[in-house]
Design a protein that fits this description.
By secondary structure, the protein is mainly alpha-helical. It has a single domain (about 1-105), classed as Ankyrin repeat-containing domain (Serine Threonine Protein Phosphatase 5, Tetratricopeptide repeat). It is about 75% helix and about 0% strand. The chain has helices spanning about 1-10, 15-20, 30-40, 40-55, 60-65, 75-80, 85-105. Helix 3 (about 30-40) packs parallel to helix 6 (about 75-80) and helix 5 (about 60-65) packs antiparallel against helix 7 (about 85-105). The chain is globular.
Length: about 110
């Protein structure tokens, strides 16, 4: 996965990475985030988060990651709660608290 990310960074702009890698959706509106939460892979979930932290603003993380919905209106929270593991749900909880805290400090 790291090799793929390194190649992506060398070939694509930040905007394309965001729109074509981190937030692209499949035929049912799920992002990579939804898919990883669905299968419960905490290692890949952590790797995606690390990449998002490097590339995204707090506002993008809140709006495009934490609150984005699939075609059924499910957020990452819904998928993690319905299909994922407790570890992913708890990690998502911690990240959300961190991001909301940063957002409040900015205002």
């Amino acid at each position: 996965m790291q090799k793929l990310w390194n190649w992506t960074e060398s070939k694509l702009t930040k905007e394309k990475i965001n729109n074509k890698i981190l937030f692209v959706t499949d035929s049912v509106g799920m992002t990579a985030w939804h898919c990883v939460a669905y299968v419960g892979n905490l290692d890949v979930f952590q790797k995606l988060w690390n990449w998002a932290e490097e590339k995204l603003t707090t506002e993008h993380i809140n709006s495009k990651l934490l609150l984005a919905t699939d075609n059924e209106g499910r957020t990452l929270w819904h998928v993690a709660a319905e299909e994922g593991t407790l570890a992913i749900f708890l990690k998502l909880w911690v990240w959300t608290i961190e991001k909301l805290s940063k957002r409040k400090k900015i205002k």
